[in-house]
Amino acid sequence: ASRINQEKLLFSEEKAYTKKYSVKEKTKLNSISDEEKSKTILNAYKSLSKLESFDSSSIGLNTKITDKYYMNSDGSLIISKIPEITMNYFFTVKSNGKTTQRMNYLAGVGGWETVKNWNLNKSLVSEAKNLTNVLNKGVPAPKGVMDFVVGHEVTGIMVHESVGHPYEADRIMGRESAQAGESFVKTDMVGRRVGSDYVNIIDTPLIDNSAAYYLYDEEGVKSRDKFLMKKGLINEFMHDRSSSAKMGLTSNASSRISDNSKEPLIRMSNTYVVPGKATEASLIKDVKKGIYMKNFMEWNIDDTRYNF
Hints:
This protein is α+β, with helices and mostly antiparallel strands and about 300 residues long. About 25% of the residues lie in helices and about 25% in strands. The strands form 4 sheets. Strands 1, 2, 3 and 4 form a 4-stranded mixed β-sheet that branches. Strands 8-7-6-11 form a 4-stranded antiparallel β-sheet. The radius of gyration is 22 Å and the shape is globular.
């Protein structure tokens, strides 16, 4: 504690903004009754339970509207209203004396149309049928060194764990080592090659209706796309006004908070691999011997986010 208190507090100079914005709702969340929300969950359960292989499930739905009034000593005044919907589900299927499970999490901002766009009944039944097919026809994965093609869910978790969290500057500087872990990335690694020329990775809160949508972060900094990796090179880290000042930079609007009782932290928003020119079919066609991994059950990663 004494070492931290002796450390000079730095804060990057940023532009002040006066802004009011909200996320549009075609069907307002406040117009949806608890009964209709419960009915949505019940219908999803009923669709699953009709399958012969269905064993059990847990489905949850949460809606909230965040009205935020932000002011700071720089002169910023930012008022926002963001309606948010999250859904999590977990189900088990069984066949031929074997069982397997599926867990997933859906989220977005907007009105009740967000839930309708998920097409829950159809998607859950499709996933359950696919799992049943794995139980009935699945074979052990081959051994050896071979090509590996991954679907969007796997790509998402890989980028989240191996690029997103390791590129959060507070983690890089050791700020979270006692709780959330450290990072294999160091402050002097900007420009270091860690991937092929084809790999470009962006973190952005500016995707419409995405779960991590915001126009200004928790320090009043205007959001932008953050090019974390460009052509396989580490390009930039995620910063708040403190970490950026320590590195002689300006913030890239990565200060986030879960609610007003928490401390703002540097956290990713929507982190993704920029699409290339190849299609899914062409990627698979080019592989003579390999594995296509569409999704996963769980993951494991070390404290520095290196071994995933």
